[in-house]
Amino acid sequence: MENLKILEQFQEPEIEDFDGFIDHLETHHVNKNMHLRKARQKNKQRVLGHLHMAKFESKSKSLGYIVGPDNLECIYELYKENGNVKLFIREYDGDTKELKRVIKNLTKRLFGRASQESNASDDHYSNYKEGEFYLRRNKEGMAYSHPNIQNALRQGVITENFARKIKKWGFELINP
């Protein structure tokens, strides 16, 4: 039942926008992936809202993984079927209210990021804040045993499952 309430937040994009996103995932980077990060305010402090990895699966499907504080974790598929774009949540845990907020803006943020990355003149890394965690593409990925991953696990920023996928999905976790 709760899964249906979460899916009600999904705003179905135009098929052309989805196709452009899939093409971007497939061609923009050797690892066929992308990442996003969302910050939020808590007690007048900037804190992590969530980290988000997405990767190319096929011409009609991408796979995504979102993780954040308070054990927020969501694995989803975004796919095309019968001329429509669908969202399937494979599994989720954590704050349902926060997950609804993430899902509501999911395609807007993903497609916006794909558009931004397509413009080579944009500087995507100029807003790193000291002490915060970020994902960055890395062809070899980052080993689970790396101190940044272990530190993020200790702080509860990422989950065990998310940490184990960082290398496989072609990312590293940085902490400037």
How would you describe the overall organization of this protein?
The protein is α+β, with helices and mostly antiparallel strands and 176 residues long. The strands form 2 sheets. It has a 5-stranded antiparallel β-sheet with strand order 1-2-3-4-5. A two-stranded antiparallel ribbon has the order 6-7. A hairpin with a 2-residue loop joins β1 and β2. α2 packs across α4. The radius of gyration is 16 Å and the shape is globular. The chain starts with a helix and ends with a strand. The model has no long low-confidence stretch (mean pLDDT 84).
Query: Order of strands in the sheet with the most strands?
Result: 1-2-3-4-5
Portion in strands: 25-35%
Rg, alpha carbons: 16 Å
Give the class from helix and strand content and strand pairing: alpha+beta
Which runs of at least 5 residues are low in confidence (pLDDT < 50)? none
SSE arrangement:
Elements: H1 2-7, H2 15-27, E1 33-42, E2 45-58, E3 61-68, E4 72-81, E5 84-93, H3 96-104, H4 106-118, E6 134-137, H5 147-155, H6 160-166, E7 171-174
Antiparallel strand pairs: 1-2, 2-3, 3-4, 4-5, 6-7
Helix pairs in contact: 2-4
Keywords, separated by commas or semicolons:
34% strand, 176 residues, alpha+beta, two-stranded antiparallel sheet
Give a nutshell description of this structure.
The protein is an alpha+beta fold and about 180 residues long.
